[in-house]
Design a protein that fits this description.
By secondary structure, the protein is mainly alpha-helical. The chain has helices at residues 3-7, 24-37, 49-52, 59-75, 93-102, 107-111, 114-122, 129-143, 157-173, 219-228, 245-257, 262-269, 274-300, 303-332, and strands at residues 11-16, 42-47, 84-87, 149-151, 182-184. Helices cover 54% and strands 6% of the residues. The radius of gyration is 22 Å and the shape is globular.
């Protein structure tokens, strides 16, 4: 796609932190939507490594995950010829605009962010300033590219609302500078829950690997996790099983993998033992993830190919981001390089 062609498309922006292991919940909640929307939008898909360091990371592991996550974006079906894929730290304008937006974000707003409260409780030995000002960096990620649409889940909706408030505040203080992004909230659909704690959402960063289905789990691991998944004391599936947290979650996963309604799946397995569903679900998972994993292995085996996509993506992103940042710097009164000679 040429830059002129790309400029005619509205911009969709999203990213995932390179922590833990990309899980089925990430695919269903985010990556699948990216693929479905990429024909109608210029997709900007970021591996947001700057966000990841609010929690201590092992450097070698972080580097590996950044490349792995980018490869999984591609394996899921993101077309690098039609979209921009890059690693956040390769575009320094994210950090630069983040500092400016910190100065236009109020303490009271940051104090209301529920994610800071949640992460502070889980990482009490490392409650750092970056964790507190994380929403300003997220705002910079979005506003740098004049994004039209930002897919958000329930846990990020509050941050997008703050991004809109910051953008409106800056625009009102100076003049229209930032496009006000709209949230993309998918139609009510599948919500993939933890296998061992089905009252909680499946998390790629869960400390218990039996709680999530990683997109790169080998077949024997997938089968073991499904076999051990929590259900209840009942033995047979009924239409009402969809309302049971444990077995209902497995029925939901099966419906997603086989593109069926939840009610249809419940009817299909009605009267069957739970073990029958688990066996069929494990087969479906293995079959669903096999082509994804084959594409991933191919991409990771061609490091030159992956590096070229990330380098080109970062180059295009830096061009777009620099245009916004130079406009911001001019409006707040910074001296442009070369003007003081």
């Amino acid at each position: 796609m040429t830059e002129s062609q790309a400029a005619k498309k509205p911009i969709l922006l999203s990213g995932i932190q390179p922590s833990g292991h990309l899980a089925l919940g990430n695919y269903v909640g985010a990556m699948r939507n990216w693929v479905n929307l990429q024909q109608d939008y210029l997709g900007i898909f970021i591996v947001v490594d700057l966000h990841a360091i609010t929690v201590r990371q092992k450097p070698a592991d972080l580097r590996k995950r950044c490349l792995s996550f980018a490869a999984q974006y591609l394996a899921a079906g993101i077309d690098p010829a039609e979209n921009i894929i890059f690693i956040q730290s390769h575009v320094p304008q994210h950090a630069e605009l983040s500092w400016v937006l910190n100065c236009y974000t109020y303490m009271g707003e940051l104090n209301r962010m529920t994610q800071f409260k949640d992460k502070s409780q889980r990482h009490q030995d490392n409650i750092n300033a970056g964790l507190y000002t994380y929403p300003a960096l997220m705002a910079a990620d979005i506003l740098l590219y004049q994004a039209d649409l930002v897919p958000v889940g329930a846990d990020q909706k509050q941050h997008l609302e703050l991004t809109r408030d910051i953008a409106n505040r800056f625009n009102h203080t100076y003049s229209p500078t930032f496009k006000i992004p709209e949230p993309f909230i998918p139609q009510a659909g599948a919500r993939i829950m933890s296998l061992q704690e089905p009252d909680k959402k499946m998390s790629k960063s869960d400390s218990n690997e039996n709680n999530y289905i990683a997109l790169l789990d080998p077949p024997d691991v997938l089968r073991r996790k499904i076999k051990r998944a929590v259900t209840d004391s009942a033995r047979e599936i009924t239409p009402e099983s969809v309302n049971n947290a444990g077995i209902g979650n497995l029925l939901t996963i099966y419906s997603v993998l086989n593109d069926q309604t939840l009610a249809a799946v419940a009817d299909q397995f009605a009267g069957q033992q739970y073990s029958v569903l688990k066996g069929e679900l494990a087969d479906s998972l293995v079959g669903f993830l096999e082509p994804f994993q084959q594409r991933y292995d191919q991409i990771m085996g061609e490091q030159g190919y992956l590096s070229s996509i990330l380098d080109e993506g970062a180059q295009r992103a830096r061009y777009m981001a620099s245009r916004t940042l130079s406009k911001v710097y001019r409006k707040i009164g910074f001296v442009a390089p070369g003007r003081n000679r």
